[in-house]
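In practice, a research group might receive sequence data for several interacting partners and want a quick structural hypothesis before committing to experiments. The following worked case mirrors that situation: the sequences arrive first, and a predicted assembly follows.
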Amino acid sequence: MNETAPQAGSPPLAIMLLAAAKRLGTSVLPFVVVILLWQFASLFFPRFLFPSLIDVFWRCIEIFSNGTMFADVLATILRILAGLAGAFIVGGAFALLMVRSRAVDHFLSPILTLFQGIPALSWVVFAIIWFHGVEFRILFIMVMTTLPAFTFQIVGALRGMSKDLMEMVFSFRPTRLKLFRVMIAPAILPDILTAWKVNLGNASRVVVVAELVGATGGVGYQLLQQQQLFDMAGALAWTLQLVFFVLLVQGALTLIEKSAFRYRAVSERAI
Amino acid sequence: MRDAVTPAEAVIHLDRVCKVFGAGTDGSYRAVDDLNLDVRPGQMLAILGKTGCGKSTIFNMIAGLTEPTSGTVRVTGRDPFADFDSFRGKMAIVFQNDRLLPWRSAIQNVELGLEMLDLPASERRATAQLWLTKLGLAGHENDFPHALSGGMRQRVSIARAFATNAAILLCDEPFSALDESTARRLRAEFVRLVKENGKTAVFITHSISEALEIGDRIVVMKRPAMIAYDVSFDSDTDAGERELIRSRIGDVLAA
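A structural hypothesis for the assembly, expressed as tokens:
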């Protein structure tokens, strides 16, 4: 009984700070290069093609500080979150049914695959023809475009669970609820978070298309206004609102991942 | 040396059990054929046999994880497959590999079986801590499985099985993946704990030495799982007699 666990020594503070600075520099560098190139282009091209990023910055501040404008950003964010939540709930239910029943799997899989092939713009047209309410139209479009990916990702996560671990948990005779809590939820969480990350990007693109065609408010609607005014600075500023939102949520998901998956062993050798 | 166990006194009772995998005439495989086996309370039965002889199938049927194709399996008088939930806290399993949940710390893994019994959190924690200490893992309670060595992980899985205080322990080659010196240490520890706590244990192995070290009864299986040799002994059995048993088992396995 004298075995010892593998020990990891802590590196000195200076090395850790240097590594952190290097990581920060590496992640910021691409953005700095793009900003510099754009700003350089703004010196030689007309304002409606490449506006100065300083103008864009002030337009962003205006959107943030103006209640009516910021309400448009919030409306879009709520539409994205509602669409993703709806697709996740329906997709999760479909996935459970598909994993439990081969017949349901055989029935739903082709339908969802068919849905995957339908372009987002087609769903926009269908929604406009079928439904009256703007919000319901957008919710429908968001759910239909992200549902197949959510469903297939959850099905994959459920099927990929370790049979050995499942059998071990079963040997303690858990109730369904406890089986879900101690085994299923933690086992599929990594795939669920990945699914949210992937679908968040998709949803933020689709919502703009939906709002562009079928809404009277939101970032997509505002982008349409900027296009009609040939206002590139405005178009960029409104686009950046969505980018900030996606980066913010991606960051939050990454923090959750870091906290929830701290149990994972990290190899010193990268892939 | 054969210790007769009557069905009435048996805690585990298998009567004419068959298990056939696959359907149809072509693809079916008979893993267990017409098996009768009785295990009395407190017995440490080692089931010995070559790889693929059906040991694990018998194990899974006793554990209630696999349903027999025909015949009767009874554990404490009940069907472990049909009455699956009624065995909660009554039967614990130590698997070939540790099967620790990677997202749980060592102590949380030991608490797993206790959570199924709806024990209060403080009681769970105290019991898990006690068993980790008994198995020499004090100080590693909050380590995740990836930070533990193979031997330590297997000890956590043994602690997890003992913590539920189940009367019946089923072990499927739990030390086969460990180096010999660690396996020897854990075997001795395991036998001590089983005897101290008055458990009935069924231990699957393919090692004659391990079976002799652990069991007070050895059943040698031949493919498809049928009993080819059944021998009981105790601590009074002298070295010469044990050598005879070893030699006889070797002959049966080689035949």
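Before designing any experiment, note the following. The helical segments of chain B are 55-63, 106-116, 121-134, 150-163, 180-196, 208-214, 239-254. The two ends of chain B are 21 Å apart (CA to CA).
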